[in-house]
């Protein structure tokens, strides 16, 4: 850890600052949000009626085939609804829980939307009735239209769902040759008994001579399996496919890289070990989910016990044969070894290491090993079973070799979210995950920097909502005297290896959250190359041959982030994983190079400029000093709390229940004394969501997150807390109804419409100290999630944990803001270990 300033003070951990306030946000109406076209009623209705009539014999044959096979997951047919061109399909209205009609998936292709729906035997009459009432221009007893126009006028066609209709992945990934076998990711719905649906599918796959993995991953409304076979084989069972919600292409792991080796002397390691102070046995662990670690390296032996080496497959062993996991372990333990070896002082290490071999080698994850969601879950379980009471941070630099998800949840990223939220343990033991964003490995793309950053996107599972996703920046431009070569990235700029979320849909999280050193690349007139001098020095997996090697990219960056997480956990051992995540992001700052690349020159940036910057660089580079310490003119408040977002009320269904109103011990007099001095207010809200993945829309009742939280800060025009609460209620209603949020608080980097993406929300307000003096309350309130809208799953009474970090910074030093607050509250003393 860098030298601490003289004015270092522990963060102020607040308790009992919140008051639960009744909160009601109106529910948005279901269905599409677009304009309903005006169609010739009789002509359109007759076309839809004819299409439903054509489905009747198809349904009869499907049910006959399903009954013949003895399927237990329900008899019925899957049908596909296609929208009118450039019209939003009112797909929510297609589902009907009473009739057990289930919306399986929604996909958009070109200018049309397609929805797949499972219709149980005998329930086609439900849609037939809709069409009849549409043709008759049905009205209720009050004279109001009950003709289903809002749904039926958005539909262009209704037909039986074929195999390709179930495909929700990139269409280009489905082989043109239907006889080519490949690994499918099969998403099954949950109806009644989960395993009955699984066994039905396995029966159908066996009849089609397809191979199904015995590994499965369970989500609230989906089960994910792997299957190997061709479209030709699978199509034999298309009539009986009543138990498949969607199909995707299974993922392959990312390429691992071999670092350029550097000859080092054994004395280097010996000298370094003489200066290392080792942690206690109960220190936090960094657990690597990677290619294994060779603990025989002299720098790693003191930090790893043999019992802490695990594998998801015993035949793979626990050792690292590809020189990846061992290098990350060296970085997580010591940081860049270049700095450690060049120093002369004592190095105190605050944490120990664990390893789980998640993949055997580069490209070696054939067959079942491609089911990363299952393997990841198994990998997390290994050390927890062996040592359940340890504090640990999990980190993984294993990622898919592509970025086709474009922010959409996958089975793998959803498994990470599920594990982080501890869904199976009712949220009692959440976990902290640090993931690499994934790398750009093509030298031609490096040469096209920085344009290449906008088109190479974060790799699966880096889109996980509950994880910290780590990008890479370039710490050095030293080309080691090669005059013809020039470093590609400026010092402090995004690394040429890093990936971004530049072109993700706005519904998905802002990723990566932060950046750590991931090295640089160089180029000349002939192209781009990697260079040892631009990389980070770390431990080699074959210490008998050589002790040190170099590594780079987001793998290295994620290891450094995990190191920082463990250092925070060691300093403040009582903090929740959500809080540790928040402190890392809260401490980050953009470098000058990042600002120069993505913020406008010579004019004030707007909110879209900041979003553009964050989707490339996250919130910048975290600083351990800021994460651990406050100062007189730069103080940080830490709040850990819980809110009950929803409740079921008789006659009203599930509604929003509470919001928490936090009274902050604001140094009002001291702030007012500073008058027009510029101050910065930074707020970070961190919580974990329970995932419910499916391809059924991002802003409908079929939400991915269990719940969503928001924060808002009292404004000078809120003359009372009642006015503040009333304004938030109104803002929440506008958000759910799709209306613009009240823009009366302009001095935030992102603002209300931009900052609430994913499950970690951060924003920065700048203004005068006098203005800040009147902002003494922060509200944390709920927004829509499937805990509220999916009532049948009965999650609506669950509490939601969250962590809130608030800091004030000012350049003025004559007033001690910290002491003004510290006198009012108890201060939690951190346990500090130099590193």
Describe the 3D structure:
By secondary structure, the protein is α+β, with helices and mostly antiparallel strands. β23 and β24 (527-530) form a beta hairpin. α1 (41-68) packs antiparallel against α2 (124-135), α9 (372-386) packs parallel to α10 (411-421) and α15 (592-598) packs across α16.
Short description:
With about 850 residues, the protein is α+β, with helices and mostly antiparallel strands.
Question: What labels would you give this structure?
Answer:
835 residues; alpha+beta; seven-stranded parallel β-sheet; five-stranded mixed β-sheet; 23 helices; 36 strands; globular
- Total number of beta strands: 36
Number of helices: 23
* Main beta sheet: 7 strands, parallel
Strand order of the largest sheet: 15-17-14-18-19-20-22
Mean pLDDT figure: 87
- Tell me the fraction of residues in β-strands, as a range: 15-25%
Helix content: 25-40%
The global form is globular
Structural class: alpha+beta
Distance between the amino and carboxyl termini? 4 Å
Described by its quaternary structure, the protein is single chain
